[in-house]
Design brief:
Number of helices: 17
Number of domains: 1
Helix content: 55-70%
Largest sheet: 3 strands, antiparallel
Structural class: mainly alpha
Radius of gyration: 26 Å
Order of helices and strands: HHHHHHEEEHHHHHHHHHHH
Strand content: under 5%
Strand order of the largest sheet: 1-2-3
Length: about 450
């Protein structure tokens, strides 16, 4: 076995580690979710005759399944996941069709967003978010040069997003449709799309989204009630007015865990969409700041990992990290904004905290992929460090015993001698390969203007 084979074997034996800050934020939010679902769902379970801990048991069960799926994602090589990008896109479209199939789809309050799995209902859009992010990350890798240079390469993912959005609006699910468009725009910008070119679809799309929101009567009522919930406190403004009362009662330190009044059948969806209001009432401003801080840490680490991956030419893991970070960040922002009366009411859960089997499981899968990104990034950094140590050791071993006068380097304008560039060797070439260098691709400029 030659020297390069020995070196490759040593590199393969190097493992990585999962990001501890990211893991800590995920663990903190998951534990907080169990506590808050237990507190917020007691009255709901009793009123339905299902028992006080019905929703807690369901939440823990789905969280356990989600953890299992996350562990599977954490053990999967991302290059293997990338190979199935087209299958994942096809799977996204098939999933959005399933709720319309007789006997499989489930309609709730006129919306067809779920399929019946026997033991539970599954909201298909939660899986679509994960599959679509992986496909879009792969697309940005395969067409990185064209996305910044041509209209067609930029419009293709936007066209795919529009198809998915139309399918979501037919369910109807305006909140998830808007979120999917926002994720697409964010990933394209971070993938290096030309911003002036990107502005045209945005300018054309915003009036269409506004029209969709205004022309539907129930969406228009949500917007008007959001502007003044107290004008119709017992009608269209009922949810938001009770949510604001819960937030106001929390004050600085809250009324105490389990002591919320609004969750006692006053606040609708207290254990799902409006769980943040119950949290604010029981834990107060300090608890709210702690929760927001955990989300900031999670999203910040995701974007940081994505940036580090792109810097090391590991583009697919980087774009996956960007996509998951944008998803968690935007959805948590919207959910918290709705509870605080900053945004119109939308049916988006608080990731990892709200009760909901589909959301919990698919969020765990996404975070498992994100932890895998951190593992592979750390492994690549360790491999590069080993290559540099080996290269330095070989250079010392090959140095002559008798010092020879070094060639005089040219003097720069600043008065310093410039060392000549070293000749490429097999080791430097291998180190460049570990970084992913040696290709002619154009690196993303994170939304350049050129």
């Amino acid at each position: 076995m030659n020297d390069l084979s020995h070196q490759a074997t040593r590199l393969e034996a190097i493992g990585g580690r999962y990001d501890p800050w990211l893991g800590g934020a995920v663990l903190g939010l998951a534990c907080l979710g169990v506590v808050m679902v237990a507190s917020a769902s007691i009255a709901v379970g009793e009123s339905l005759g299902a028992g006080p801990f019905h929703y807690l048991v369901r939440h823990v069960f789905f969280l356990a399944v989600g953890i299992g799926l996350a562990l599977l994602a954490m053990r999967s090589e991302l290059k293997t996941v990338e190979k199935y990008n087209r299958v994942l896109l096809l799977g996204s479209m098939v999933l959005l069709v399933l709720p319309w199939l007789p006997g499989l789809g489930v309609s709730v309050n006129g919306a067809r967003r779920w399929i019946n799995l026997g033991v539970s209902r599954f909201q298909v859009v939660e899986a679509v978010k994960v599959l679509y992010i992986v496909w879009l990350a792969s697309y940005l890798v395969r067409f990185s040069d064209e996305v910044n240079a041509t209209w067609m390469a930029m419009l293709k993912p936007l066209g795919v997003a529009v198809v998915l959005v139309v399918m979501l609006l037919l369910q109807p699910d305006f909140g998830s449709a808007t979120l999917l468009l926002a994720i697409t725009a964010g990933m394209l910008v971070l993938g290096g799309v030309n911003l002036p070119r990107m502005s045209l679809p945005v300018v054309l799309g915003l009036p269409l989204l506004t029209a969709v929101a205004i022309f539907e009567p129930y969406r228009l009522r949500r917007i008007t009630s959001f502007l003044d919930p107290w004008a119709d406190q017992l009608g269209s403004g009922y949810q938001l007015s009770n949510a604001l009362m819960a937030v106001g009662r929390g004050e600085w330190f809250g009324v105490g865990l389990g002591a919320s009044v609004q969750k006692l059948n006053y606040l609708p969806e207290a254990h799902t969409d409006f769980i943040f209001s119950v949290l604010a009432e029981e834990l107060g401003f300090i608890g709210v700041c702690a929760v927001v801080g955990l989300y900031v840490l999670l999203v910040g680490r995701a974007l940081y990992l994505g940036l580090k991956c792109v810097e090391m030419r590991r583009h697919f893991p980087g774009y996956v990290a960007f996509g998951v970070g944008l998803w968690i960040g935007m959805q948590s922002f919207v959910s918290i904004g709705v509870n605080l009366g900053v945004l119109p009411t939308k049916g988006l859960t608080l990731p990892l905290v709200s009760s909901g089997g589909s959301s919990v499981m698919m969020t765990c899968v996404a975070l498992g992929l994100l932890l895998r990104v951190s593992y592979e990034l750390d492994r690549a950094e360790r491999q590069v460090a080993r290559l540099r140590r080996d290269a330095g050791a070989d250079a010392d071993a090959d140095a002559p015993a008798v010092d020879k006068p070094a060639a005089v380097a040219p003097i720069s304008a600043g008065g310093y001698r410039q060392a000549p560039a070293p000749a490429p060797t097999r080791r430097t070439a291998l180190a460049a390969a570990a970084h992913g260098r040696g290709t002619s691709r154009v690196e993303p400029t994170f939304g350049g203007f050129a």
